[in-house]
From TrEMBL:
Gene3D superfamilies: Glutaredoxin
Gene name of this polypeptide: trxA_3
Protein name in the entry: Thioredoxin
Domain Thioredoxin: 4-88
InterPro entries membership: Thioredoxin-like_sf, Thioredoxin_domain
Source organism, top-level taxon: Bacteria
């Protein structure tokens, strides 16, 4: 399940986690963000136990997108050990999302 996060719990769930975290920054009014969310849901079903998926709605959270200079919807950020390790400012295929995780756990 792709979990919702916002400015209030981003640090606890993403930055202080020991898993690989894929975060989708989306805006529900942007059609490609909605398709990217569906693809993240599909990809997440094949995630190893060492990875989690989250989405952040940019209409309700301002601090985190500003902190990470996210201004394109959708944008994917991948975090490992509390640090951003990969950025994809577009809508990837589910296989690409799985590839990011595979590259990090190897």
């Amino acid at each position: 399940m792709v979990d919702y996060i916002d400015d209030t719990d981003f640090d606890a769930k993403v930055l202080k986690s020991d898993t690989i975290n894929v975060v989708l920054f989306r805006a529900t009014w942007a059609g490609s963000s909605n398709f990217a969310y569906l693809d993240l849901e599909r990809a997440e079903k094949s995630f190893p136990q060492t990875a989690k998926a989250f989405y952040l709605d940019m209409d309700y959270s301002v601090k985190v997108p500003q902190t990470y200079s996210v201004n394109i919807y959708p944008t994917f950020l991948v975090f490992q050990n509390g640090k951003e390790v990969f950025r994809y400012p577009s809508w990837p295929a589910p296989i690409d999302i799985l590839g990011w995780i595979s590259d990090l756990k190897d």
